Amino acid sequence: MSSAQIEIQLIAVVVALACAIPGTFLVLRQMAMISDAISHSILPGIVIGFLITQNISSPILIFFAALTGVLTVVVVESITKTKLVKEDTAIGLVFPAFFSIGVLIISSQLGNIHIDTDAVLVGELAYAPLDRLIIFDIDIGPVSLWVMLGILSLTLFLMIFFYKELKISTFDAELAASLGFTPIVIHYFLMSITSLTTVGAFNAVGAILVVALIIVPPASAYLLTNDLNKMLFYSSLIAIISAIGGYWIAHLANTSISGSIATLLGLIFLFVFLFAPDNGLISVISRQKRQKMEFTLLTFLIHLKNHSFSNNNPPEREISHLTEGHFRWNKSLAKKILDFAEKNNMISIENGIINLTERGEKFTGEALNFILNNETSKLEDMNERFLLFRG
Amino acid sequence: MEYAVNIDDLTVAYKFKPVLWDIDLDIPEGIMMAIVGPNGAGKSTLIKAILNIIKPIAGTILIFGEPYQKNRHLVAYVPQKGSVDWDFPTTALDVVLMGTYGRLGWIKRPGSKEKKAALEALEKVGMLEFRKRQISQLSGGQQQRIFLARALVQNAKLYFMDEPFQGVDATTEKAIINILKELRSSGKTVVVVHHDLQTVPEYFDWVTFLNVKKVATGPVKDIFNDDNLIKTYGIGYQISIKK
């Protein structure tokens, strides 16, 4: 691996981490779209900054552009507050306006120099190592690596210090306010961090893909865990994997690095979305199917219990009652439920008459108790205890 | 009489619509008070104004004789259950720990002392065994108990609860009311936004009727009558309450 290759991967990893960490809080605050708005509306800030400084990595430019990002949030919120338009509409109104101002300035003032509209949209990670940071004649690496390391360190430092404040104001802003934590300050603190990160990352991955780096890792991590610390950890892990993996895909397929990173992120999300152990689509569907099956079984057993004390040959307990009597089940469902009940040793069948076994009586009795006491949430635990085979 | 809260000339408005209109209200220390009134009467808004969450148009509010900022640490608040996202990735214990954040102030993290207090509060509301449960996996009643535990851990002198019995089972309602009564017996002041008029005399010793303006406030035995119910809710309500 050449040193340029290593540097590109390092930059990709640092950018991805710097995006994924504030992204976790944005996703939890249901503010994912704000990052989209910020990523576009920092463009005029970057362009004006560039006109002033003539240097894409200058701290003044970064500060200017980050300010434009925060300004976007302020404008979106002010428009929303008038109640004349809804928030999503306000976001859609503001960022194209800002973005188009940037595009106009680029095309009229900057012609063919360094910034062009392509780079704005998808970045140019491959060229990042060309711009070197040289201090006292010593080359200490690409400028963008140091810029992003600076932003990442600042983010980490602030997130660690204000972790508790971020958490409480994200979960319960009213409680946070009553305890004196001024959620509005924390809100703008998060917005500033997001803007700063976006500006830094913009140069490397462009306005559109930076959104993927902010949203996709936390969105995947959210499906993998119920713990905020772990969510931050998984989010970071996914960011790192996609940064390095994306680089190598681009290298082997000879294509855009940022595009490959975003594609890999998308694939990782799809995988998690389908296969996450508890919250993945497949797990959710199979759980719903199982619960439906088990609930149908319970309905059937309760019916048997209700009629267990009637006469010797009660029609309500005949097998044919399931399909021809009140239940009106189709044959395959009836068979499935009967098999399921027998397999679990809940019923015995003699001469076409179904009886609850002792075990079936006990199971149904407990279940009825939970239902009557409005504690249906305990049914799942009970199924876990009783059923030898789940639905 | 010592007062937990003194409110003078409080007016809160959204745009031109007054939500609370010129409220004077003194809440004596050591009582358990229900705030009742129809939907849109401003019950939650009153609590939020006291807690400095909503800025009033006019009026002064004193908590134990001082502005809220000064005596914030003496106040605990249980918001409506629906006001937070229960899918937030955190555990029951962690939510209760949030009750200690106010005392800790900025930056400082909860330590073993705070954790011990949180576990005690969980035990008090009968939720100790659920401490590691993710909060979305709790029932409505259990979530409300967690909120109560979070307020208990604040170790305040004045408790505000916004509809704590909404959507909870009977057992939880009894458990919560017992804890609140215990708080009152130890000299704390408890203020509850309450919807069920039937249980007011059983649960509370003090009541405030509110419908944008304050209709009446005082001991339940003196003022919980048809006259005030009609003034607050309109004709027709008096029949539903049998004393």
Could you walk me through the main structural features you see in this protein, from its secondary elements to its overall organization?
The complex is a heterodimer of chains A (391) and B (243). Chain A is mostly helical and 391 residues long. Chain A has 2 domains: 3-276, ABC transporter involved in vitamin B12 uptake, BtuC; 282-386, Winged helix-like DNA-binding domain superfamily/Winged helix DNA-binding domain (Arc Repressor Mutant, subunit A), CATH 1.10.10. Chain A contains 17 helices and 4 strands. Chain A has helices spanning 3-28, 32-41, 43-53, 59-81, 87-110, 117-122, 143-161, 163-171, 173-178, 183-224, 228-253, 257-275, 281-306, 319-324, 331-343, 358-372, 379-386; strands spanning 132-135, 138-142, 347-350, 353-356. In chain A, the strands form 2 sheets. Chain A has a two-stranded antiparallel sheet. In chain A, strands 3-4 form a two-stranded antiparallel sheet. In chain A, helix 1 packs antiparallel against helix 11 (228-253) and helix 10 (183-224) crosses helix 12. Chain A is elongated and about 95 Å long. The mean pLDDT of chain A is 87. Chain B has 243 residues and is α/β, with parallel strands linked by helices. Chain B has 10 helices and 9 strands. In chain B, helix 7 (170-185) links the parallel strand 6 and strand 7. In chain B, helix 5 packs across helix 6.
